[in-house]
């Protein structure tokens, strides 16, 4: 309707989430593995008043994994009962290009401007929304609102967080090639004192994953494990190492 052809937008996650009763939960828990959320992750997040969020964001449909995850948490005594109806939503993880048209600017998850690693999109929605507002103001003030006049909007958001999206996308591609055993080996190495000590005191920003990803991948211990992952992972490791 806006005159922007999105093409086949097949790069997306599907989010699932419910509220559950979880009286003894105090810390956020993240779950990985093909038997939990294929090519992605699941979460258990404490709320107030004995409630918690239970969810996952797999590729495509969960195909029964959400139900299995809930039953696993019940069996482990993590949660008691489900306290809300499930919510489901799509999360595009590849930017729309172009993200502008005649008299149109697209921001936030409508433009696929989310973290490819986790599917989180609030921060990039704020950033792209502010850039879109500035672009719209300039366009209206000058009376120039064609697609050619508005192309600076995409150039500007790419300058602010375009590299973050590229690094995150390559990291997700790499992650999706890994087996459960390979993920386990990487996590054991990452959580070891030899690696964690190098990050204590680092200025790690929750909304900027690129620096953490790149620093981690360049660590000697992590690179040693990456070198054993096999040919399927090699192209994505190379892309990450040379991301600009």
Automatic annotation (TrEMBL):
Organism domain of life: Eukaryota
Organism: Geodia barretti
InterPro entries: FAD/NAD-bd_sf, Geranylgeranyl_reductase
Designated name of the protein: Uncharacterized protein MJ1520
